[in-house]
Specification:
It contains 21 helices and 20 strands. By secondary structure, it is α/β, with parallel strands linked by helices.
Length: 682
Amino acid sequence: MSPLGNPQPLSQEPDAGPKASHSPPLINLEGVTRAFPSGDGVVVVLHGITLQISTGEMVAIIGASGSGKSTLMNILGCLDRATSGTYRIGGRETGTLDPDELAELRREHFGFIFQRYHLLSELTSIGNVEVPAIYSGVAPADRITRATMLLTRLGMADRLHYSPGKLSGGQQQRVSIARALMNDANVILADEPTGALDHASGEEVLTILTELNREGRTVILVTHDMSVASRANRIIEISDGRIIADRAVDHSSDIANSALVKQPTSAAMGIMSRGKLHSWRAGFDRFGEAFKMAILSMRMHGLRTFLTMLGIIIGIASVVAVVALGEGGRQKVLANIASLGTNTMEIFPGKDFGDMRSGKVRTLLLKDAQEIARQPYAAGVTPTVSVSTTIRSGSQELSVQISGVGADYFDVRGAKLASGRLFSQASILQMSQEVVIDDNTRAALFPNPKISPVGQTLLIGKVPATIVGVLQKQLGGFGNNTSLAVYLPYTTVQARYTGSDILRSIVLLVTDDTDTKLAEQAATKFLLARHGVQDFFIQNNDDIRQTITSTTDTLTLLIAAIAVISLVVGGIGVMNIMLVSVSERVKEIGVRMAVGARRSDILEQFLTEAVIVCLVGGTLGILLALTAGEIFAAFGSSFKFVYSMTAIAGAFGVSSLIGVAFGYLPARSAAQLDPVVALARD
């Protein structure tokens, strides 16, 4: 049986003879030196290494610990760069390549087998093997088929969906070998491949590497064990950063060598020669990998993820709830103000309040009110007159201001009936002695709530009048809402009390689709034309509404700004946790880079994780704000949360922006890592 777990060997072609020695070297190093900073100076690990390795060779680099063999392998695998000298792979100078071009070389030409396996713990066996093909843009179905085939041929058919923690050391190394072969690498780099294995498992791995070499792959072993090195066709010995020996090993007596071939067979290559995705599909596929890894990482570190989200949850919930509460408060205030008739204007004689000559102005007449009522901006008009007198009911006597008003007055002022009725236009024309009182007057004259005032007779001055209605209690604006209000038809007041047709004021209700400022200007222009002189002034009650709403808007903005600060704090928390995540997953980053991940792939992976954290946190924050509104309403408060879709969408967008803004620095930090440094991190 084949050491790869198949009844037949990976290659079934006949012996093609010894390798050609006249072909140009696949790997060519000339005068390669590698030095590392150390304090104020440098430590030179490799000294002017010159080396050529041909296609199809199996080479062992041997030396004691600290001799520089691992550093040499890192340079050969494009995980590290030479400080000086040149390194060409297939005639291509690597010193001039940027990080993504080096990643392409690792992705398309090299397969790495590490002593410590370096499998990703979040993924299954098949998931680990797939990773290089994801970065190469292989179609999902094709790479799954390829990974399954490789693992099956390596005797792992019953371990395809096992995580690394459930595999033995030998099984993990087999998964590592399958990963190295996933992109059909023509150069296999094995760093102490048997160092962490028992003897039996180590022999299995060496047999696999020997068979891979027979297929025509170039295999480079790094080891300190001469028994391992003796399996190679060539041994290069290194000491103190210098090559001290380079000798061939004669395996002509080994019967197995009669199966050597120059190139991998189509059976060994599997299906990797087809199934590549278009660039945009490949990019989408890599994003899918980044998304999957982000979800897996969040699940594995659930508590840390939740604590990261907490700042975003609180911040988003605060913003949405504050805006909803502010809008609810604004609408409540506007409703209260509307009950006072804030879209009304009141026209008075004189130049302003306190004008001593206002009483002498005789030009504000009923005709003015009637003509204004015909204007397109007028939804309702009522004249008013007033007189001070006393009212009596039984033994109760009060001094009040009697208001003579039109039938539309109560609609204009937004007053509501508690009981009875309002007087009508017929009452105005007939100068009826009908009176409507407010709740304060009712309480003063009829303290017993069981006795209805409707139908009772009041003596207003010397004139009796029948109470036909009682108004509900309402806010009194900036005046004293404990004052007493008694209303009669204005014609009755003019005929019975003032004996004059002069009006105290004209109250104008502006239509909903008309700006009150424009209506004020039109009314001013109209009265100027009628009077010939400005002997009147207009109080625009909408100013009150605008002042109050401006104040509520300012308070809402202030509280929202405080909530935004909590969002920023939450964003900083995301950045800190992502930086911790990067430091914890340095080896994962190194492995991904070793198998060909671009810097943009690493950036995308960590940025995706940050954005997902913020989006999930934002969603939970919005749900928390909506729940808070329901709880608030459950307590029976007259105050309501009025949610704005703009605010919710904005909060969701802000959470995404926080993920990008605060996740970029940690993601960029991860993408800038040197793969050899990342792999060496404990």
